Amino acid sequence: MISFTPTLSPKQSCSRDPIGYVDGNSLYRGYFVLNGLDPLGLIYTEEVKVVTLAEIDRHPQATPGDSGTTFGSGSWAGMDIMVESKRGCCYCTTVVWTKTMNLHVTSLIPSDAVDKLEMTLNGIVAVIGHEARRRSALRAGYYAYIAPVEGASLAGTLCRKRKGEAYSMLQTYVQQARSLAIEDFNRYKDLSQGKIDEENEKENWLLAPEGPFGADIFHGYKEIAGPTPLFNRRMPSPLPTDCTSSDLDSAG
To answer: In terms of domain of life, where is this protein from (predicted)?
Structure first.
C-alpha cells in the first residue's frame, strides 16, 4: 500500500503524490513533481516543439522552467526556374517555379514553471494556449504573405521583342516580390506577437492563493489577445509586354 505521509522522502512523496501537497510540492505547485512518476496520468507535459511552416514536429530537448516561442530567421530554399523560348518575333520567358521559404519556429511549453513562478494546472493550460496563439499568428502570416510568392504561385509568362529582356524583367519581379513578402510578413509578425506579449504583463495575470512558501501561483491570463487582422499584401507593379498576337504568331 502506498503511503502519502510527509515522513516519506521528498523524491518518493513527490513522485507518488500527483495531487496533494506532500513536502509542499505537487502538480499544483509545479516543481520537480511534474518530472517524476505519474501513476494516475494526471501530469500534462509538453516537449519542445519545432514548427516548420504549418507542420509541427517534436524536438528532443526541453528545459523545464523556460517558455516561449522563438521565430528563427527564414531562408529561401531551392532555385528559381525560368525558361526562355522564341515565339514568332518575340522572346518569351515562363516562370515555372520560384524558391520556397523555410521558416522554423521553436515553441517551448514548460511543464513546471513560467518566469520562475509556480503554476496551477489551469496555469499550465493557459501557457499552452498562449504559445499556440503565437504559432497560429506566425502561420497566418506565412500563408498571407510568403506562400503567394513561392513555388508555383508566381507561375506565368512574359513576352518581349528583345532577347533576354523578358527573362531579366521577370527575374527582377520575382526578387522584388520576395522582398516585399518578407517585409509584410515581418510587419505582421511584430504586430501580432506584440499583442500576444501583452498577455504576459503582470497586471494581466490571474494568481492563485499563495502557497506554503509565500510564492505567487500563476493561474492564467486576465486578457487574451484576439487574432491580428491581416493587411493587404503588396506586390511589384505588373510587367508590360510589347508583343502583340500577330508578333507571337509571325514566322520571325
So the answer is: Bacteria
Domain that holds residue 233: 46-249
In a domain, 7, yes or no: no
pLDDT digit string, tens, across residues 2-35: 333 333 333 333 334 444 444 444 444 443 333 3
Give the residue with greater pLDDT, 226 vs 103: 226
Within this chain, do residues 163 and 228 fall inside the same structural domain, yes or no? Answer: yes
pLDDT class of 109 with cuts at 50, 70, 90: low
86 and 35 belong to one structural domain: no
| Whether residue 24 is found in the same domain as residue 84 | no
What is the rounded average pLDDT of the residues 203-221?
A: 73
Residue 1 falls within a domain, yes or no? no
